[in-house]
User: What shape does this take?
Amino acid sequence: MKVGIVGGGHNGLVLAGYLAKDHFDVTVFEARHRVGGLCVNEEIFPGHIISTVATYFGMLRRQIIEDLELEDFGLEAYLTDPIAVLLLPDGGFTFAPRDSSRTKISVPDLTAADLEGWKRFWSDMAKAAQLMSPLYHQPDSTQQELIDILRADGLHNFADYVFDGSLLELTDLYFKNRYLKAAAAACAPGFACDKGTVYSCMHYGQAQACGVQGGWGLVKGGMGAVSESLERSALARGVKIRTNARVAAIRVENQGTANKQATGIELEDGSFEPFDIVVSNADPVTTFTRLLDERALPKNWGSSFKNIPSTASAGKAHILLKRLPKFTQLEALGHNYAGIIIITPSIDDIIADAKRVERLEMPRSLMMTMAIPTVTDTTVAPPGEHHLNIDIHCLPITDQGSAWTEQSKSKIRQAVMASLKVHAPDIEDAVEDVYIVSPTDIQERFGVATSLCWHLPMTSDFVFEKRVLPGCRGYGTPIENLFICGSGAFAGGAVSGVAGYNCAKAAKEFARRASLEALQR
Ligand SMILES: Cc1cc2nc3c(=O)[nH]c(=O)nc-3n(C[C@H](O)[C@H](O)[C@H](O)COP(=O)(O)OP(=O)(O)OC[C@H]3O[C@@H](n4cnc5c(N)ncnc54)[C@H](O)[C@@H]3O)c2cc1C
Assistant: This one.
């Protein structure tokens, strides 16, 4: 059977690899000049291989790495030592070397009860994430099932808060220290005071880099090497990958009838290729409001995609360094600048900034997760040169209603530098160049219509059964031989490959049924 895949993001490539393994005839159409989508390397500064968007490795399922032999095709993930250091206001910090007996926590007003609560919180978080993980391979699982599983294991707090509470409310049940709360807030991509952040923290808690449960690492040669290994694996199995091949439409015959069928893919250059099965790796807004004719869908069906509620997204700052900056706390710790460095504002600032971003204003103090991959990987920069890769957790999706421009991005640059300066006073002197990826870039350069990291939000209205399309099952759509496999599908975003993996099963099952029906005719 011939399968056409719209988009060569990592999920599209995972899907392509699995289908090709089962002898499907697969073609991937990627709009950009290279595959990978948000999981990509680019030479932003001369000689520097930068993980432009996704940077941290941990979510990609081991099963996928093995089945598609990604390590044989060049994937090499590694763990750093230390794992992470988290820099808090007023000189507070938490320091996590790989040897956990050397862990240090230094925050004002820390009580023994808070410390015990902090440890219990992370132990429960790890357990909750692990309990959730198998559900990601059951696309018909529901929010209630997760709640029941958490309760059955005694995680009543998590069951109560996973969908209806915020991380801040949940931590309150474990410890009171506001510095520790700010530290916990860093595990949520959104603002810790927002609903949905318990779930998103559990989502990322499933990481398992290099076999370490809860472990996050980096990839040798940059995170884009994940997509490159997937591409090589797919090509070796006969997948045809076409880059600079933007899909203009998914053609559907018998529109408006019960027998409607996707017949193939129309490219922007006007060419058409027929397929038995079409799968979209693009976000659902792109797929259902841009690539399909409204008449191919049930009446008003797509209207929900036109108004995805969102004011906040994320961004990146890539900094070319003249030399390593001196972070005051890291110098005091004798830190080697390897691993993850997190800067988190105070809880009061997080709460105030959540309100600002809701009004599409810039936050005053940024929550940032960063790494200097050049310290641990000599393949990503010329000898002796360094770059700093920064994730900005929360940014207004637009600049007060207008798309982010090269000019307005200077606001983001200034905010990044101001937040860095608090912990690395010499930062300005260490900087050669700064490159910002704004939410508008995520939309325009990377083709995510919603500008969201995970294509759709990961709040209770958009996870588990609510991420499955209305009236459909799993990865299905209202058109029987059209499927979705991107982060906007079950079970959401991150470089996990889960959607591509599960969707391959759904597409194979469809093909099996279709062959059976053809034989019976
Ligand atoms: C700032 C940021 C930081 C992140 N950091 C991490 C991280 O450190 N670790 C992690 O695990 N996850 C991270 N994520 C999330 C992760 O990057 C994404 O969830 C994941 O990469 C999405 O993969 P995907 O294959 O589902 O979709 P995408 O990567 O979005 O791929 C979709 C593909 O479809 C293509 N496409 C769209 N429309 C068309 C068309 N009409 N024709 C042809 N092709 C088309 C696009 O060009 C793209 O290549 C981050 C996300 C963001 C935004």
